[in-house]
Structures are given as structure tokens and as C-alpha cells.
Design a protein that fits this description.
Blueprint (H helix, E strand, L loop, with lengths): L9 E4 L9 H10 L10 E5 L5 E8 L2 E8 L16 E4 L1 H9 L20
Length: 120
């Protein structure tokens, strides 16, 4: 079983996604709209228009994984800097905050050392 790990890269698609899409539809969206390779091993995050459903698409060495979350109450909060982009790279902890319903605008982070990001 492939758990989601902090070592993976996460890309949030900025536009509402039809949640009827499955493996082929979402991987096609990654290729056409994000101009990325869906088999890269990165995780692609999609939300519906109401932002109460989320799908995560991930490729491992033998095939695609599709994770689906439906909220019974409330919505997922998007990062404020997403509006002017097609996609946004998220850190693992940012994805967890979104999944847990924590207000992203109230988060204050202390400076920590981090290696430079690798090029895509």
C-alpha cells in the first residue's frame, strides 16, 4: 500500500473539477491543463465547484491511485494566492491543514531551514 508521504510533491489544480472524472479524465487534465506528466510520481489535487469534495491522483510504479474525500459539512479552504494561477505546489503540511479544515490565513509560521526546491 502506498501512503501519502511528505517526500512527495503536491500540485493543487486551481479550477473546479468535474468529480465524475476518474483515472483517465484526471490524468488527461494533468497533461492538458497543467502540462505535467501524470506518471511523474507527483500528487495532483482536484476540488469540485462547491469545494466539499477532493480527489488526489498519484502514480506509483505499477499504476494510478485515486483518493476521494467528501465532506459531510463545510468546505475546503483554498490558499489565497491560487486565484491568479493554474496550479499551486503545496507542501505536505499545507495539504494536511486543508484536509483538517484549519484556516490557512490564521497560520503563522516560524522560519526554518529548508533545502532549495528542485527544478520541475
Amino acid at each position: 500500500m502506498m501512503p501519502l508521504a511528505s517526500t512527495l510533491r503536491f500540485f493543487l489544480y486551481a479550477h473546479a473539477t468535474d468529480m465524475r472524472k476518474s483515472f483517465e479524465g484526471l490524468s488527461g487534465l494533468v497533461t492538458s491543463a497543467l502540462t505535467r506528466d501524470p506518471t511523474s510520481g507527483d500528487v495532483y489535487v482536484f476540488l469540485n465547484r462547491r469545494r466539499d469534495r477532493m480527489k488526489l491522483l498519484l502514480w506509483d510504479r505499477s499504476g494510478f491511485w485515486l483518493f476521494y474525500k467528501r465532506l459531510e459539512q463545510g468546505t475546503f479552504q483554498l490558499p489565497s494566492n491560487l486565484a491568479e494561477q493554474t496550479s499551486l505546489e503545496l507542501r505536505y503540511d499545507e495539504l494536511l491543514l486543508i484536509l483538517e479544515g484549519i484556516d490557512l490565513t490564521s497560520i503563522k509560521r516560524r522560519h526554518r531551514y529548508s533545502k532549495e526546491k528542485r527544478l520541475a
